[in-house]
């Protein structure tokens, strides 16, 4: 009897030890047909680090500190004369057949030099450019620039194009063989006038980093080569000539309108074209942020009665050379009031 009671106590003790603790949560069984939940997504990988800067590329920027301006003189030399056109239009004739004096042609783009480029940093940190004619009494043209020499505003025509040519640097890092374009506009389409029926312009705008060579003091010399051209051809509609007298209308085969007056006659269309080409070579010091040398040529030729007002460079052949100068250009003198 005692053994039976002892065995019962041992069995109850073992059962109590296996009892689940109170408060434990039991999982709820899924309904039949329900699929298991997908495994939790892994944490997104960390953002990839930016690729290292390509050591074969360089960033070309002007290094102009406040209070330490940079100045260059642009010398311009004509070569081979300066013909405005390879085809001279026949002088107009009067009704009696006599030649009339040819009217003065519209002024083409002004010769932009020699000039001095004076670049400085303002108190706000912006870049400013003054274009001062050498030895003249003309006030300086003033413009604002970006850090790479892009003309933001303030210059027009030939003055703007020459400044763009010698001051503008590439926007992105460049390596040997890389090419980019400049913000030049050599033929202004808006200035052609209604008489000129233009065809499709042909444009090529390419500046290339030809080489990148080391120099003393950790300097690098970036050699840039310039090849820019614009070509435009079209037809010039003739202007209407005044009607002849009624007595000569039949002789000249002029058609009469309802009032009996001879109709104006239009001269035939003529072909006209313009071609501008620019070549150049410059050596830019990457670390110093300035030119060591720059030389180039600009050639502009027109044929027929091309509207010269549309040309944004001087006609003829020009040689350009940029030279660093130590002192800033003096402001143009102002006229003193007479007493």
Automatic annotation (TrEMBL):
Compositional bias segments (type: Basic and acidic residues): 18-27
Residues passing through the membrane, by range: none
Superkingdom of the source species: Bacteria
Biased composition (Pro residues): 28-42
Region (Disordered): 18-52, 73-103, 234-276
Record-given protein name: Lipoprotein
